[in-house]
Design a protein that fits this description.
globular; homodimer; alpha+beta; 27% strand; 11 helices; Ubiquitin-like (UB roll); six-stranded mixed beta sheet; L-amino peptidase D-ALA esterase/amidase; 15 strands
Chain lengths: 400, 400
Amino acid sequence: MQIVRGGVTTARGFKAAGVSCGLKKSKRPDLALLFSDRPCVSAGTFTVNRVRSGSVVLSEERIKKGNSQAIIVNSGNANCCSGDREIQNAERITALTARRLGLDENKVLMASTGIIGRPLPTGKILKGVARLVKGLNANNGSKFAKAIMTTDTVHKETAVTISIGNKKVTIGGAVKGSGMICPDMATMLAFFTTDAAIERSALRTAFKDAVLCSFNRITVDGDMSTNDSAFIVANGAAGNRLIKKGGKEYSKFLDALKYAALELAKKIVLDGEGATRFVEVLVKGARQKKDAEIVARHVAGSSLVKTMIAGGDPNWGRVAASVGSSGVRIDAKKTDIYFGKTLVMKNGSDRNVPRNILLGMFAKKAIYITVDLKSGAGLARIWTCDLTKRYVEINAEYES
Amino acid sequence: MQIVRGGVTTARGFKAAGVSCGLKKSKRPDLALLFSDRPCVSAGTFTVNRVRSGSVVLSEERIKKGNSQAIIVNSGNANCCSGDREIQNAERITALTARRLGLDENKVLMASTGIIGRPLPTGKILKGVARLVKGLNANNGSKFAKAIMTTDTVHKETAVTISIGNKKVTIGGAVKGSGMICPDMATMLAFFTTDAAIERSALRTAFKDAVLCSFNRITVDGDMSTNDSAFIVANGAAGNRLIKKGGKEYSKFLDALKYAALELAKKIVLDGEGATRFVEVLVKGARQKKDAEIVARHVAGSSLVKTMIAGGDPNWGRVAASVGSSGVRIDAKKTDIYFGKTLVMKNGSDRNVPRNILLGMFAKKAIYITVDLKSGAGLARIWTCDLTKRYVEINAEYES
């Protein structure tokens, strides 16, 4: 596998565009389009929030129906909590986009992100579609990645290549996400493109797998969005022998997809609202994997742990308190905690590690916390960021 | 029932003291003692955190054994995560206190609050015990309430009186709690005294009931402490006819105790770390009470909802997103949201309430959010506070 510069237009046959249509007061780009020059097999994972955007409902239905060829994305408005209009809005916007692209409307998907509960200014978007289609270009991956941003401070994209037989296959992706990031199902907007020729069922299985071990393992603030969607479209332009489930080629593809997804998931955490530090919580020695995951999510979600990291304060007692209160049956007297590779609590008790060593560790940009429950083989990793005053500022001042 | 000025020494036969013994760098009082001139029936509820302070373990055991007559409390150190020494520390401290008071040591309980993972400076406390006992006085309720504080900004006490037969019965209480407040079991340190004559089993049932509908219904930051303890001691000095379970007198006592507990629980929320606003989340119309509680806790725990309130921003879409993601099966198309008495979302859709009306509501010090799921009779209330930059400051700068 090779890591290359690029994003959603790095794979062959994909074009993208990003324009401003007036949804954001800042006049920043707020409308993006992704297009493949031929039909794609597609897969998606969507928020499990019971309050869902009409854009999510429409895309989920269309992915079930069959092939996809374009995705239109607006930022600045979630198209959510505004009643039956939501789906009508998404239908009108995708219908016009389809007409301009010469496609059946069922081949066009849609995603939205932004303020909830404000009717989508559909007129503004419809007016922008012509310019958007005109702007389609194979070099516009970054433009696409920028137009889907909300409180993100950087655009986030990645690309990798692998060889399948003697053909080069590319996978590229772009994501947005900074707040309202919670570890359950897809937790932001993510778009992957690949020129691999792959069976639909293989693509769906691989994508589900990749999302589970990347986007579903991060948390910024524990709040799950109404609009979370992750898409992958595969157009076969690489001309490789069709990838089917099982076998070496499938594994190769899956590994590359997992890598790309994890890269982008980590970028979301690094760009977490107000975040100054990347945090990995690894829980091992749990009775079951599920237990390890519950404890890791609980620690990664603790406001006291996250503020302590923001303050550079190596107060492992807060980690211990959080481990004990996850609801999982643990044995406190067997529990070890490590900061980096240093054992700071052994069998539930202080190890008296000199404070300057701990302080040095907490001055770093990446903090690794390991909890060993010493009760089994269950293991899980969750990635998060610190909780800073800036997070509160961003979210107290986000204009509704 | 009458609400009176007072606290833990308002009921007859109780004395208290608060001194500084050097656990806190600030030199503020950090050692408190509560004493009854005769043995009390007692009850307690303790943290369900699996990582627990030795002080909690000792008190829970002694309450099971029989009567209680004194409680010694230290602030500044949690006596937790320091191994077997924890229980030995608690034993030594309560033994000396018992000797000074002329009591059997099993009649002395202990509670601790403060930094986790640092060995308790038992020597300092032992040196303070003589002064503490000497300082016992029936007017020292507030001194007691002050000496148990950590990040609290105000001391918190309350007292009420009722008539049982022709006797006046008093219930008084003091609590500490400001951060690490999470809604599961007792969630801070709370001490109640009463001069009621009451059967032990009646006291225990009443106390459990009172804690469930007060301290178990508040959340500041979702972090559950290792040291949470709530105590009640009843010395019978009022000379009333013995209160037994069931009957009018039990109900009267229970109502007064619930009132006092709820008052103190709300005081904790109002003094939540960095809090500027009191928030009530009421969920009704759930299929079951349990569902209402899950949704209410989820909304009250949402960082995005809490920062929005800190910012005075009436962004009800965040409430909707939180309601949808609690895991409870709700029907988004039937859900209503009210801010105060104003319906802002009806059947999952915007009601277009003028922004100036909403802004006015969110400028108030107490914010009432009601969610009506319109699917049954389940109802629950949870109290919380906003999430401000000051919360992050306090917890990023709390010196470990």
